Amino acid sequence: MKKILFFTLLCVFANGIIAQNVGVGTNTPTDKLSIVNTLPGYGVTHTYGPVTIGTYVSNLNAQFGTRTNHPLQFFTNNGNAQMTLLQNGNFGINTSLPTQKLNVVGNILTEGASAGFKFNDQSDNANGYEWFTTGGTAYLFRSHFPIGNPITVLSNDKIGFNKVNPQTSLHIDPAGPGSILIGTNKSTGGYTNLEMGITAQNNGQSYIQSTKASGSTWGTLQLNPSGGAVTVAGYLGIGTNTPFSPLDIQSPGGGLPSLRILTTGHIWDFAIGDGDFNFYHNNSLSSWIDYTDGSYNSTSDERLKKNIEEISTVLDKVLQLKAKKYQFIDAGETTKKSTGFISQEVKELFPELVNGFRKNAKDTTLYYGINYAGFSVIAIKAIQEQQQQIQAANEKNNRMMELIGKMQQEIEGLKQKIK
Fold first, then answer.
1. Which residues pair with 324 in a beta bridge?
2. What is the average per-residue pLDDT within 212-234?
3. Alpha-carbon distance values, 400 to 389, 395, 406 (Å)
4. Which of 52, 74, 293, 386 is the most exposed place for a label (fewest CB within 10 A)?
5. Separation of alpha carbons 132 and 142, rounded Å
6. Which residues in 212-306 belong to E strands, given as ranges?
7. Domains of the chain: which residue ranges?
8. Do 399 and 407 form a contact (C-beta atoms < 8 A)?
9. Which of 261, 262, 267, 299 is nearest to 282 (CA)?
10. Which alpha helices (DSSP H) does 111-154 contain, by range?
């Protein structure tokens, strides 16, 4: 009979547990299972082997995690772990081995009026930045001084640095003098760098500067090194910030070249020295234009010459030259005629005054040109020869006149004797 009564009471008690709330540490449970601590401490624990998971509450906070040195993982739908919290505080989503405080394998989506991604300075945890989007535009917001949006990305892919309304694909506003640098370090180490910037926000200048060596302020800048044209629509200044012509070259002075044109075996330099415009071939002065009167001068110092010899008679050859009037075929439809000589005819008489040339790089035909400046020497030599002939004729004429005078005197004497 006692056994039947005990079994009946046990069933009634069990039915009450199933049907009502159960309290641990409380006689008035408010939930299906209510645990009340009188002091801060752990509540529910679950142990398997060396791993224990449990809850902890105090008058300041509540905690849930492992009570042993093991990671805490979360899963859904009876599947594999989808989130993992390691003992070092690294938290992973879609990874069980997070290497950072937040390690996400996949995309992160933030939504809402204040959606974004904010991070503070590692050193003081005060200064910070925040990525957010609004109206299709993405911003990097700086929450410390100077407060603003240092980076803006528009929906049309235009990116602005310190510019909330970029006008080009990449728009940088330094709000004063500033530049961008491609390279490692422009001050030390001898690195190659490319710098582009402006000297002032208003009324300044823009520049492109290359550096190549430690401590240097300049380097070699190549434009279209693989080929192609380089065009300038405005004025181009070399050595000057204020060009006054389509190409304005500021001479370095001291006879140093301002312009060099070279090919294999030949270097032509153009320079200003002592005010004159000088022409150099292979670093040797060839000729110059005098700044005082614009006269063209060729080097003629005896110390620069060798194999010097007198020119033979030229007058008879000069007399054979045939001056012509003609038109150039390449001149197009023009009625203007030029005067001069024909190179082939001059070559027969004065070959040293005729030089060959090719009209362009594609034309292999050898044409001829005349050194007309060299004709001045030939003309002077011809005048000298002609003067010698004139002088000889004058001397002969004087002797004949003297002889005629004597003959007239003798005739007069004979006339007197006859009388």
1. 340
2. 85
3. 16, 9, 10
4. 293
5. 11
6. 236-238, 247-249, 257-263, 266-273, 276-281, 284-289, 296-298
7. 312-418
8. no
9. 267
10. none
Q: Number of helices and strands (H, E) in the chain? A: 4, 29
Predicted model pTM: 0.61
Q: Please tell me the distance from the alpha carbon of residue 19 to that of residue 190, in angstroms, as a whole number.
A: 83
**3-class DSSP state of 207:** strand
Provide the CA 398 distance to its chain's centre, in angstroms. 82
339-383: pLDDT as tens digits: 999 999 999 999 999 999 988 878 889 999 999 999 999 999 999
**Both tokens assigned to 87:** 């003992």
Q: Residues 160, 162, 164, 169: what is their CA dihedral angle, to the nearest 10 degrees?
A: -10
Take residue 149 and report the two structure tokens written for it.
């949006």
Place of tokens 């009471």: 9
Task: Tell me the C-alpha distance between 52 and 247, whole Å.
Answer: 83
Question: What CA–CA distance (Å, rounded) separates 239 from 244?
Answer: 12
Q: How many Cα atoms within 13 Å fall on the side-chain side of residue 300?
A: 6
- Please say whether the structural domain 312-418 has been given the CATH code 1.10.10: yes
Residue with tokens 């299709």: 136
Q: What is the mean pLDDT of the chain?
A: 89
331 SS3 class: helix
- Measured in whole angstroms, the distance separating CA 7 from the mean position of its chain's CA atoms is 96
